[in-house]
Amino acid sequence: MVRKITELEKVLIQKSKPPDEAAYFLKKGVKLSEEKKYAEAIACYDKVIELNPRSKAAWHNKALDSLHLDKYEEALTCYEETIRIDPTHSHSWCGKGVSCIRLKKIPEAVACFEEAVRLDPTDEIARQNKTTALQWQRENRVE
Questions:
Q1: Percent helix / strand / coil, the chain, rounded to 5
Q2: What's 19-75's CATH class?
Q3: 16: helix, coil or strand?
Q4: What do you get for the CA distance between the two ends of the chain, in Å?
Q5: C-alpha–C-alpha distance, residues 104 and 82, integer Å
Q6: What residues have CB less than 8 Å from 49, skipping those under 6 apart?
Q7: Which of 24, 51, 105, 143 has the most CB atoms around it within 10 Å of its CB?
Q8: Spatial separation of the C-alpha atoms in residues 125 and 131, rounded to whole Å
Q9: Where are the annotated TPR repeats, by residue (predicted)?
Q10: Who contacts 48 (Cβ-Cβ below 8 Å, separation ≥6)?
Q11: What is the pLDDT of residues 55-106, one digit of tens each?
């Protein structure tokens, strides 16, 4: 015989398993980003970071959305944090390179793209960005 769970038992079960707030806010941030609500998404990622400062996904997504809002210094800081957490995250190296390009830090951008390509030789975007940065560096004689 199967017994139905009472409403009180349902409440007690829910309270015994705390919701994963970080996962909730990360998913909410991704959804907001998909809707191009970047500032709201960043607020969600900040909540995730508050709950779990080592969330590579939150730092990386915050960096991406900061780029969308033309907040290049903030994006650079977030990419650096992502790389501190996981130095092998090639997409963060590439994103850091893009941030550096936007901030006119061309030699640093080239180095970032080189690291991204070293970590993932199949990353065509990093390869193309590196070529573009090197060309810009040569044309403008930036050392």
A1: 75, 0, 25
A2: mainly alpha
A3: helix
A4: 79
A5: 21
A6: 55, 58, 59, 62
A7: 105
A8: 10
A9: 22-55, 56-89, 90-123
A10: 22, 25, 26, 29, 55, 57, 58
A11: 999 999 999 999 999 999 999 999 999 999 999 999 999 999 999 999 999 9
Instruction: Please give the pLDDT value at position 138.
Output: 85
Q: Tokens 């990360």 correspond to what residue?
A: 26
For residues 129 and 45, what is the distance between their CA atoms, to the nearest angstrom?
Answer: 27
- At position 33, the amino acid (one-letter code) is S
Residues of each domain in the chain carrying CATH 1.25.40.10: 19-75
Angle between helices 56-68 and 38-51 (to 10 degrees): 160
- Whether residue 82 contacts residue 59, with contact meaning beta carbons closer than 8 Å, is answered with yes
Question: What's the length of the chain?
Answer: 143
Beta strands in the chain (DSSP E): none
Two structure tokens written together for 98: 């893009």
Q: What is the pLDDT of residue 44?
A: 96
